[in-house]
Amino acid sequence: MDRISKEREKQLSVDLWIILLTSVIALGIYTVLGNNINKFIKDDSVNIILRVLSIGVFQFGVAGLGSVIVSIIRKDSFLNHGLNTKNLIKALVLSLVFCIPEFAFRLYIGEIHKWVPFIKVNTTAEILSSGFPWNVLGMLITATCWGFFEGFNYVIIRDKLSELMPSKYKYFDWGALICALVCILIHGMIGITPKSIIEMTVTMFLIYGMLIVRKITGNAWGCVLVFLVYWNAFD
């Protein structure tokens, strides 16, 4: 396994710091302005598109903006990170397969009653009840911020971590593992009860699995699909 150059190592570290700091800044701003933002989002006298855009900006800031900034700085096409047609069907199917344990767990504990993409995003129900074209436009914004960019953000981070810390094993990947750990930390899934441990395990399996699929197939669309049709989709 060839070691990357010191220059490339430094470049990858800078990229990861940019992504991290962008997310932290966006989250910090949201934390400070959170009460006012939440009041604005619930104000039905304001057009729903303006409201979903306002919260979508912060979602994109936390998961997406940093990766876009780095890609622009490095002139690095998204195609280089798996947004292509190589092994497309295989990547889509295998990524969804890794959702099965998490789905079975949610079903067993009674947390799944209906499937609606992005239903757990707090503006989705109102968007869907809005008339055309607001419902279509609102869902496009939601799918872009909470679907495409959140899923692809994991891909960018994993790719850079894995290049920085390569593994000689086909099914073990440091980048995928770190992303899975970060996911359960962000979503507060750490616990010591049997339920918490199972939830943590199946969620890590999902995130790690979809990123391993990206590694093996060379295609990242499966990661995007998971966040478009599965993540935040059950109520």
Automatic annotation (TrEMBL):
Record key words, sorted: Membrane, Transmembrane, Transmembrane helix
Protein name per UniProt: Putative membrane protein
Transmembrane feature ranges: 12-33, 48-70, 91-109, 136-157, 169-190, 218-234
